[in-house]
Amino acid sequence: MKNTIIAVLTTIHTGLFCQNFNKTIAGKTDTVFLDKSKGYYKGITYNDQGIKEHESFYRNGINYQVNIFDVQGFLVETYYPNNIYYNNMNIKYFQNGKKKHEQIVMGIAYVTDTLQGTGDVVNVMRLDGLFIDYYENGNIFSEYFYVQGKKNGEFKEFYPNGALKLRGYYYNDVLSGILFEYDEKSSIIKSDTLFLNKFPK
Asked: How far apart are CA 149 and CA 168, in angstroms?
C-alpha cells in the first residue's frame, strides 16, 4: 500500500510543478524537481529505516540550502552554502522546532596557525559575523559579533523572559569598556569599568 500511494503522488505531480525520481526507498536518494522552468530541484537522502536524514536544495546546479535531520526525523540544522541568498547563514534547532543557534557569516578568512603539541602549521578558517543563541522557549539567550574568529564589538545576554541581562564590549576576544548588568525587569543593578579584562586599581 505504501508503494502504491507514492506512485499515485508521483503521477499527480509529474508535469505540473514537482517531479520525483527514485521513490522513497530506505538508504536511497530521491530527487525532486520543484520548478523545472527555473532550474530548482532538491535531493533527499533517507536512512535504513526510511527516515529523512539529509535534504539539499539546488538552483541551476548550485547548492543553496541544506537541511539535516536526526534519527527520528526532526530538523536539527539548516545552512546556506555558496553565499547565494542568505550570506552563509547556519541555523540549529531544538527538537520542538525552535531555533537553538543562528550564525550569520559576513566574511571568511583563512590564516596560518601552529597546532599545540605537534607544531604543525595549518590553515584555519576565521569567521566574521553575528552569532545568536536561543533559549528553548524561542527567546534570545545571547548575541555576539565576531571578526576573524574573535569577539569584537557590543554583546548582549538575556534572561529567559527576554529581558536584557548583560551588555558590554569585546576587543579581540577581551572584555573592555563598561560592563552593564541588569535585573529581570531590565533595570541596571551593576556596572563595572573593564580594561583589557582587568578591573582598574
From this structure: 18
Nearest Cα to Cα of residue 141 among 161, 170, 115: 161
Domain 34-194 falls under CATH 3.30.70.60: no
141 vs 54: CA distance, rounded Å: 28
Q: What is the pLDDT along the chain (201 residues), one digit of tens a residue?
A: 333 222 222 222 333 333 444 444 455 667 677 776 777 888 888 888 888 888 988 888 788 889 999 988 899 998 887 655 555 678 888 988 898 988 887 766 555 666 666 766 666 656 788 899 999 999 999 999 998 888 999 999 999 999 999 999 999 898 888 889 999 987 888 777 766 554 444
Q: What is the pTM of this model?
A: 0.64
- Listed residue (96, 62, 97) closest to 80, CA to CA: 62
Three-state SS sequence of 42-89:
EEEEECCCCCEEEEEEEECCEEEEEEEECCCCCEEEEECHHHCCCCCE
Q: What is the C-alpha separation between 110 and 6, in angstroms, rounded?
A: 46
3-class secondary structure, 105: strand
Distance CA 57, CA 40 (A): 7
The full set of domain ranges for the chain reads 34-194
